[in-house]
Amino acid sequence: MTNSEELWKEANKLFAGGVNSPVRAAVKPFPFFVERGKGAIIYTVEGKRLIDYVLGYGPLILGHSPDSVKEKLIKQLDKGWLFGTPSELEIELARKITSHIPSAQKVRFVNSGTEATMNAIRLARGYTKRSKILKFNGNYHGSHDYVLIEAGSAATEYSIPTSDGIPVEIIKTVEVCEFNDLDCVNSKLKKEDVAGVIVEPIMGNSGVILPEKEFLKGLRELTRTYNSLLIFDEVITGFRVSIGGAQTLYQIYPDITTLGKIIGGGLPIGAIAGKADIIDNFTPSGKVFNAGTFNANPLSMAAGIATIEELEKGYPYNIANKAAKAIVEELENIIKVKHTINHISSMFQIFFGVDNIKNYSDVKKANREYYMRLHELLLREGVFIPPSQYETIFTSASHDNDIVNETLYKFKKVISELM
Ligand code: PMP
User: In angstroms, rounded to a whole number, what is the distance separating the alpha carbons of residues 90 and 107?
Assistant: First the structure.
């Protein structure tokens, strides 16, 4: 018989820490292994039913295996899945991206958010002929050397915000400010020749943290003043907080946007988008090298197109946003201890023991043990929220009223136990 405990023992013989991506190991006493998912529900190999608020860490805005995406994938499987040539699908997906993301005129497809930010940074350096980068404390931009410096997400969960193995020479090229601190940005840009400022316009990797009113506007103005490029990392927020991402919501337009997650409909993807004269610096038209065997692979393109076609109908945002709002409002009623919930659209996070979270240092003051206890109790009751304070709780178009009501019933039960 296969069960998660036995699989976990096998996995530990084969993988570092038993997993292939660290936060998966944060589920205690051992991770559950998933057999299948449909809509808002996943089933473990033991057949346990869980309402899913992790959603693959963000891509699954329609929920698990939606028919629309599945049908398009099956059609593509019939035709083949890798040609090493251009295909019409990449034009279709790029047209969707450029029509919805205001600052995107041209696109380069890659295979992950990590590749997207790595190439965006190289592009900013190549374009400006400068080498320094400015990032923000607790922002996470993937797992490459340029950005694993004061990083959020699993890098913080495992207490290695700056990873071992990154040459000091690279660390020295990265300046770090606190999110929402424009004075710091101003002084760094004044002092150094910075190629680009990379930011999650809404932080989703130290829990959820919203930009203060003038922050993004200030970043736009300062980067213009100092001839630095502004890079919005919209790997989470792109096509989630609105169909045009955070830039549409706040009407602040970066020079380069990195995308991932939702635009691949649950298959591996990343993209660097921006003004034509910047993107044209990529090979072969320019001298900033990028290439990839799997770039613009037909399956990711097909799943991305099918997902965005659904998003264009509007209903996924209505349902997902309504679900998050209903849950957050009810949690505000039932949580009686000091806490903060940061929320926007279909993403939120709960922080205990604090009453204002505006940057990473604030998050570090939250009672993380309390959050983890909430995660454990909810899991026991059949609700899966991220096993880390430094991740985002997501809702999807499959989180309808029944799912929300069931979730709230379970929340009420465990919150009284938690108190
Ligand atoms: N940027 C952001 C904002 C992310 O949230 C993530 C992943 N959570 C990445 C980049 C890296 O994406 P990937 O895991 O696809 O490499």
Answer: 10
Please check whether the domain covering 67-311 is classified as CATH 3.40.640.10.
Answer: yes
Fold of 4-65+355-418: Aspartate Aminotransferase, domain 1 (3.90.1150)
Q: What is the domain partition of the chain in residue ranges?
A: 4-65+355-418, 67-311
- In this structure, are strands 174-177 and 132-136 parallel, antiparallel, or unpaired? parallel
Are the C-beta atoms of residues 126 and 288 closer than 8 Å to each other?
Answer: yes
Ligand 1 near 152 CB (within 6 A): no
Regarding the beta carbon of 140 and ligand 1, being less than 6 Å apart is answered yes
What residues form DSSP beta bridges with 197? 134, 230
Q: What are phi and psi of 329, to 5 degrees?
A: -60, -40
Tokens linked to 221: 């103005």
Q: Kindly give the pairing relationship between strand 41-44 and strand 34-38.
A: antiparallel
Q: What is the pLDDT of residue 161?
A: 86
Tell me the CA–centroid distance for residue 118 and ligand 1, in Å. 11
- Answer yes or no: are the C-beta atoms of 97 and 258 closer than 8 Å: no
Q: Which atom of ligand 1 is nearest to the CA of 117?
A: 10
Spatial distance between the Cα atoms of 103 and 351, rounded to a whole number of angstroms = 33
Task: Please give the pLDDT value at position 395.
Answer: 99
pLDDT of residue 1: 56
Q: What local confidence, expressed as pLDDT, does residue 2 receive?
A: 84
Report the distance separating Cα 224 and Cα 257, nearest Å: 16
Q: Which of 110, 203, 261, 347 to mutate to test the pocket of ligand 1 (most atoms within 8 A of CB)?
A: 261
Q: Hey, is 137 helix, strand or coil?
A: coil
The alpha carbons of the chain give a radius of gyration, in whole angstroms, of: 21
Which ligand 1 atom is the nearest neighbour of the CA of 268?
15
For the beta sheet containing 132-136, the strands, ordered from the edge strand earlier in sequence to the opposite edge, are: 106-110, 270-274, 256-260, 229-233, 194-199, 132-136, 174-177
Burial 84-100 (b: 16+ CB within 10 A, else e): eeebebbeebbebbbeb
Q: Which of the residues in the chain have pLDDT under 50?
A: none
